[in-house]
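Here comes an entry:

___
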Amino acid sequence: MNRQVLSLIAICCSLAIDAQTQQGVTLHGTIQSDMLLPQNDNEIGAEKTGDFLTNTYVDLLLQSQHVDAGVRMEYLEHPLPGFESDFKGWGVPHFWVKGRLGCAELTAGTFYEQFGSGLILRTYEERSLGIDNSLLGGRLVVKPMKGMTLKALSGKQRRYWKWNKSLVSGVDAEIALNEWIPKLSQAETELTLGASWVNKYEKQEDIFVDATHKLNLPKFVNAWDVRATLNKGPWSLLAEYAQKTQDPSFDNGYTYRKGTAALFSGSYSKKGLSMLLQVKRSENMSFRSRRSMIGSSSFINHLPAFTQDHTYALAALYPYATQLADGEWAWQAEAGYNFKRNTALGGRYGMNVKLNFSHVRWEGTINYQDIDVQVTRRLTKDFRLTLMYMSQIYNKTVVEGEGGRVHSNIFIADGKWQMAPKTSLRTELQYLTTSDDQGDWAYALVELSLAPHWMVSVSDMYNVGETHIHYYLGGVAFSTGAHRLQLGYGRTRAGYNCSGGVCRYVPASKGFTLSYHFNF
């Protein structure tokens, strides 16, 4: 990072301190460092790309009554596997100053923002996926009256260690009608209306359809969004619609179709019962600050997958990535119920049952489907058991480009024994059966927790069907105060790491891992 940026950061921090000397200034920060000593392993395809790899982040935040300032230092000179060569480097890519006066808040520097559900604008950071699409520029938030919030912003989007040349600008307005209409408040009803507009300005590129014909690309791409949210008692409803003008890009084959997205989400929740229903329809809604980019970088917006984010290893073996160009229909329904204690089904300690159904398709083709049921019951005062069954259809050709359709059945048992007030032992047994792809998988985990400081775990994921390879992992974690240190050793399978429908391919790796986290 050049000296001008470092000087700007120092000046901003000084201004924050000087402006608030009499009001008091507090300093907060975090340090996160994930390290790997890689080893070669021909059996799983792991390659040693260096003697020491690390992704390290240091965040500093100064807060005061009227002015805040923050910086982030990142060191990825030797990045972890799965972070392509563009991540290589170090510097201070995140720096900002925020001032508050009356009903207005002004931010200068880098910032994150989301309009509504993010259908036309969502900038955020997800380190496990290598995503940081913050904007460098300015943002103004004004609350001119009770129940109204107005936002305006403009900036250039981060891509690794640079910023894309295109300019992203937008405005957003939200009105809480229950703050204006007394009858809504009296009925304990919250009704919020919102609308957004986002514009991307990007200069022409030389993109040819053949040897002599060049595409005439639009310099301006506009997107707008309208939404309504209703909350009353246990009910919550959200409806949202977005549209985008012609935006030829690599994602859609440089076609000139408009983009659309619509979603509905309804939920009901009260003591012992919860229900969720979500529907989304999207087409040609890839919206990037650089039209020729591929992969997970340079996205201005975000399309939720409406599929379950599973935490169990084999349930998450085939995660779904939202399809952007061709579009998709996505449905998700979920229900949960707590059977009371001392009833026929609840037993002595009660029982919880969760059902989930996710289905994603486009023009008759099933991209993904997940039907699962999970039952959690405390069998004794000290032992809790969770059983889960999952039927999954994963269209590997649609998501990954090849591989056909994978239909699997997954069985999971998760038991936790509270051996003493501060000592617990948890075990997982999982089995995935399929006649497709690499065949069956088995997984086992044992985790010993010695609160509040120690945790020890060992696990093994074994391919029963085709490769007969063990992916073993062992680790020990120690926590004290604001510090957490974790040491591990083992193999990591090549595959996709996903969150919210966004995925990144991670190559196979093997070696010693060390992670350190500190908050102050």
